[in-house]
Amino acid sequence: MRNIQILIEYDGTDYCGWQKQVNGISVQEKILNSLGKVMRDTQKITGSGRTDAGVHAWEQSANFYTESKIPIDRVPLALNTHLPPDIRVIGAAERPEEFHSRYHAVGKIYEYKVLTGQFPSALNRNRYWHVKDSLDMGEIEKAMAFFKGTHDFTAFSSAKSKVEDKVRTVNRLETEIVGRELIFQIEGDGFLYNMVRIIIGTLIEVGRGKLKAEVIPKILVAKNRSLAGPTAPPQGLYLKKVLY
Amino acid sequence: MRNIQILIEYDGTDYCGWQKQVNGISVQEKILNSLGKVMRDTQKITGSGRTDAGVHAWEQSANFYTESKIPIDRVPLALNTHLPPDIRVIGAAERPEEFHSRYHAVGKIYEYKVLTGQFPSALNRNRYWHVKDSLDMGEIEKAMAFFKGTHDFTAFSSAKSKVEDKVRTVNRLETEIVGRELIFQIEGDGFLYNMVRIIIGTLIEVGRGKLKAEVIPKILVAKNRSLAGPTAPPQGLYLKKVLY
Fold this sequence. Notes:
The structure is a homodimer. The first copy, chain A, is an alpha+beta fold. Chain A is 20% helix and 30% strand. In chain A, strands 1, 2, 3, 4, 5, 6, 7, 8, 9 and 10 form a ten-stranded mixed sheet that branches. In chain A, a hairpin with a 2-residue loop joins β8 and β9. Chains A, B: Homodimer. Chains A, B: GO terms for molecular function: RNA binding; tRNA pseudouridine(38-40) synthase activity.
């Protein structure tokens, strides 16, 4: 049995998220439909993790098993033929039989884009969180430092999260300013449900002066979701890379 | 009578272009609808020029007359309330009564984005021309030099163009490479119908090695559209700025 890993870029705007659901169309479902046409023996695909409705991926990773003899370099093109233009397979590789997209991931990189300035953008309306208020970047950077390292991120995850162990390590958290864009990059060994969006929502509250940078360590220790900032909207979030 | 100039950003994907038409929904029509709600006396808006179906604008310029007493800094927000999210008014200013968006424009800046590499992009599918072939940038730059200056651009305009005088001046033509993106910027005193898209289509043919850079001056002199390259697709083109 061949175990094939594929890399997928998608625009999450019109999907209920990665994961197949009863209500709404998912990215996974669209890929399964395409797999069904290209490799007739494949009814299952495992992603590295979920992304929410409206969240994008520059490079989601997933794997599936097949007996198909299709050459590996033909896989992206063959799958793309049966996919809508807002989902593109951008890579494929043969993996050992035991390779698992989720269990074997050792980390993930997310990107979050904020658009500052008075007016929202027509061209990038589904690509950013538009924040009108002027932001104190010095305070934001001070707050960012507190998230780095290993912490219990209970306060920075959705109450709906069912995972028991909420300790995660953030290896990297950086910002870059390009014109009106404020781009965050965050790399960690794993992320809890809504964790990136709550961290960003909290950083923006700090930038607005509504929360002090110094309280971040206290919020982490208190493990209380209601002390952290709001969940930033989905359309600014991009799964950038899954690390193995 | 107040003469108000507005600046507009739009995503051209779902429109038949700037200009009001019998078939299809235009950007102009959407703005007119909004103007009708905000300033009840306004039934006309003059743009700096047309953009085709699928072509975008970072900053289109237009003006209209009104007796309305609305404060100028309230105009963008008021109009945006009645506009779809893919059209945003991003500026407004009072102008002298004789100001005319088209006649008084002394130049325009356009941007054209090409995406290179094997795979098209899901996230930017309506924002680029995807060109798979490897491109010889040295040859493209050699060809670019021939477009600069004052020429009769008959060969680089649509045969449908009804303008008599086809002499235009290209003041600036530059490229920038950012990752997989190849971005052209072109500034001139005015552009004929499809002129930017035919220049870009020709430059890509040169980059592919299908046309020699040295033939550009001959094509200009021959004034023969069929000797130039194809018209590049609309979704890579952005009206960046109208100069007054």
